[in-house]
Structure formats: structure tokens, C-alpha cells
Write a structure and sequence with these properties.
The protein is mainly beta. It is built from 3 helices and 12 strands; from the N terminus they run ββαββββββαββββα.
Length: 191
Amino acid sequence: MSINLEKGNKINLTKLVPSLKKIRFCLGWDINKYDSNSEFDLDGSAFLSSNGKSEEKDFIFYGNTTHPSGAVEYAGDNRTGEGDGDDESITVNLNKLPESIDKITFVVTIFEAEKRLQNFGMVEHAYIRAVNEETNEEVFRFDLSEDFSTETGVNAGELYKHNGEWKFNAVGSGFRGGLAEFMKQFGLSAN
């Protein structure tokens, strides 16, 4: 049974699915064809952090697809978002995560948004959902339905550990500056 989350909702994944070991976080979207003739390339990324700090190796995206621990893997870059269903996914193996990692932040950004004059107001039907990798059952879905008319990046949500339990916070917060802005937040250089 899947749960539909709204912005600001938090759920306890450890209590909801006690046997949960491996989660596939899936991202999907469609492009509003009336807004632009340019190609869109949305990218999913994950920032692993310990007490709010990340290292370069903890930034998982199309240029660094696997964390050194093997706990987080990016499945690949979908450059069009065309077709039905999920467009990109990032899999997290909770048993392989280093003990020091207490949060994974999932973001979606538009590649070269400023250059192409694009923003999330031109994107529709965006979502993040979690699937139990072992059973292929959807655990939750969070539709990113807010109108982000000037934003080029969205913090979709955060998987975090609290008192030994894994929880998810549906953030749904937009940012300008795209991926570089998120990198700064985690103390990483965008060069």
C-alpha cells in the first residue's frame, strides 16, 4: 500500500516497512510543450551528508554514479524525460551505508537552465517515489505539484536517520541557481 505525501509530510520508513533494506528513489516528469522549443534535460542527484556536511565522493549524479561504499547508485541520465513512468532513479542500500551518513538529500535540477532560459514552471507531472527494491512495491509517492515559475532546482526530499530509524521528509522546495546552488549548501565546489 503506497502513501501519497504532501509537502512537509514526514514518514517513518523503518516502522512502515520493517524489512526495508534497499530503496529505489524514482524521479519522473513531463515537459510542458507550450513553454519552450528547446530540449529539456532534468537531472536527479543525491547528496549524502553527515551532520550537514558532504565530501565530493558523497555527491551522486551523472558524473559520479556510485558511492565508494556501494550503498548509493545512480541508474543513468535520461536526457529527455519522454515516455511514461520513471525517468531516473537512485538506489539506496541501507545496509551498506556508512554509519556516519545520517541524511541523503534528493534534488532535481535542469541542466543548463539559465543558458536555455528554462525553469520548473515549464515542467509538469514531476514526482519522486520510493520503491522497495526487494518486492518492487511502491512505498510512497510525492507529487512536486507546486508552481516553481522561476526555480531551476528542487529539493524533492530527504531520507534521514533519527534515533536509529530511517524517515523521509517530503521537502518540495525550489531554488534558483540549479545544481551549483545545492553544491554550495553542502560545502562543495561547483568547478
